[in-house]
Write a sequence for this structure.
């Protein structure tokens, strides 16, 4: 049983560009959350998707958007990239109140 | 804003030493406290989920306690081994599996 898988693992973008990160949840999980971990900080909650809708959102600007597909996979989109968006982006999946599993993350560098 | 603090930031011990870290939080307004172990280049691994004041959980040489009245959780590692080297994260589940993380304690165990 594959756990949470994320792609790409690493990418480099230029300021002002747009990026899409992808996440496949663990089998049987229907809830996907995204976190940003900047250097020296703990992961920060961006938003959560359940039943193809955004259920909760953290303190991130509208440049951060997402989507959940009928198969529960999810995308995180960031528009108008800033240098400060450089971080590790983690995807987490769960079902109900069960264990929350994380992927290995996507490293984004904005130059 | 719920502020989760972890101490120490980093710890260097010798193989065989026992060690403990602290996760502190200002209120008991959460559903559960989660501990994760995160090795470099891997995904965070769930260790414990604690929900009740006085909860004690154990997994091999690692154990954790929760005191919601005084606002802290301790993680103990008995007889540390080099493979215990990792960052240990604590997080509060504020509802619908949204996690608010501390900044982590980085543990290095030398042979």
């Amino acid at each position: 049983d594959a756990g949470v898988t994320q792609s790409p693992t690493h990418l480099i973008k230029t300021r002002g560009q747009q990026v899409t990160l992808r996440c496949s949840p663990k089998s049987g999980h229907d809830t996907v959350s995204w976190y940003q971990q900047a250097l020296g900080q703990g992961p920060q909650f961006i938003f959560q998707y359940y039943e193809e809708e955004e259920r909760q959102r953290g303190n991130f600007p509208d440049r951060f958007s997402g989507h959940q597909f009928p198969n529960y996979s999810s995308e995180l989109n960031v528009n108008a990239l800033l240098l400060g968006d450089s971080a590790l982006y983690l995807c987490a999946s769960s079902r109900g109140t069960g264990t929350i599993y994380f992927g290995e993350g996507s490293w984004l560098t904005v130059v | 804003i719920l502020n989760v603090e972890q101490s120490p930031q980093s710890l260097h011990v010798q193989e065989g030493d026992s060690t403990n870290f602290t996760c502190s939080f200002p209120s008991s307004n959460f559903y559960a406290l989660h501990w994760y172990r995160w090795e470099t280049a891997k995904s965070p691994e769930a260790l414990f989920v604690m929900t009740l004041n006085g909860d004690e959980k154990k997994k091999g040489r690692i154990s954790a306690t929760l005191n919601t009245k005084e606002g802290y959780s301790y993680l103990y590692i008995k007889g540390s081994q080099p493979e215990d080297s990792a960052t240990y994260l604590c997080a509060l589940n504020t509802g619908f599996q949204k996690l608010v993380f501390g900044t982590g304690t980085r543990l290095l165990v030398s042979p």
